Amino acid sequence: MEIIKYLPLVLMQFTLILGSPFLTQKCYLWDARCLTSTAQTLVPSLTAGIPELGVERLDTMYIDSLHVDQEGYKVDWYNIYLQGLRNTVIDNLSIDINSKVMRLLFHTDVSVKAHYVKKGYLLSLPVAGEGEVNMKLKNVHMEFVVPFDIIKDVQGRHIIDLKGYQYWYDVKDGVDVVFGNLYYGNNELSRKFHTLVQQNWKLLTIKYNRFLFDKSNDKIFNAIRNYVHSVPLDSVLLYYYKIPDTEIAVKCALNDSVCLTQQAQNTLQLFVEGIPELGIKKIDKLYIDDVIVQIPKFSYAWVNITIAGMRNAIIDKVSINQDLKYIRVLFHTTMIMEFDYICDGILMSLFYIFGDGKGHVTLKDMQMEILFVYDIIKDHNGKHIMDLKTYYYGFDPVGGVDYYFTNLFNGETERTKLLLDLMNESWRIIVAYFSGYFNKKITDKFFTTLQIYMRSRPLQEYALY
């Protein structure tokens, strides 16, 4: 199981390349929070450069030149000096073990100084000049997606082989830029040009900053690649996820639904509390993504959504169809949703409603059925694992639904009572029309949690297979 064996070390080395060549903290492979924290502490060393490993200094970074020729605008920059990477804030560092892709998000301010020569038209304004440019890009957010593989070096040692990268960027808080000697000293034309740039900074960063970031990010990637190629994987202690003995006290045959159901109930609390080592977050309270809905004549948004109730869930049945390769899970619980909301429009052709405030929805005796489609594959150690491919679900809050929203109609109590009475009396209609928007987000979380868990363990550890 070569890839699984070495992946914890792979990711630790990826954090190391963001800073020091010395490991200061050990993290589990799936523990993105730990990895992110470790990466943050290591930023200064790498940005200073590691010449003995062929890692170029990244702050101050030197770029010899760049050329832009786009839509009638031509500019050349020479002797470019870029600063700011030493102040990088690492927002997230994570890895997808199955796709062998690392994902890095960070942000910082970037300052650039260079010599420029430009001519042509920018935003329909003629421009020309030659001199020094000073630019500050405020709060630059960057995302790197880096596919990798594990190979052997000439000495037969396993190393990380970064295959390439893609990146996305967003300059969030503006740009300050001064072109010296613009229009060769014509101050009035220079003032008009700088004003135009300041008024359209967002558009211009989208159109033209990629030319700069293509150059700087190549240097960042090359620094990463050179570092990891120099360090054998077995030079760092490996760590594994220790499976609690209580989880494997009973192994079930795949056709033994009674046993599978009981073991699912016994394991539920593990997911309720989360498994940080695997990157599995708590499912109670469960945080889900924002719900934003726009339909004819009505729109609403729910944000900061939490779901409680899974710790009290009863697993009614778990069964596995080995011929069609699906797992069927039925459970029930009362779910309590809390969120911030905003709404505006006509509901059910009856009410013009509006408001923003807090929302509280109780789905009583929520019955859920989920079919997980799976395949059984071999991991890199030749052991069988259950790989969940997709899922289908159904739900029914058989005990009814209670809706409550604050500050409807700007706090007007009479109309608020009329609307809430309608929603609570006609909850089946509300559920039929609107619940799919958030129930899909809940079941997405359940699917991802179980998918990660199943992929992390050989089948024979928990089943008679």
UniProtKB/TrEMBL annotation:
Coiled coil: none annotated. Keywords: Signal. This is Uncharacterized protein LOC112043106. It comes from Bicyclus anynana (Squinting bush brown butterfly). Residues 1-19 form the signal peptide. GO terms for cellular component: extracellular space.
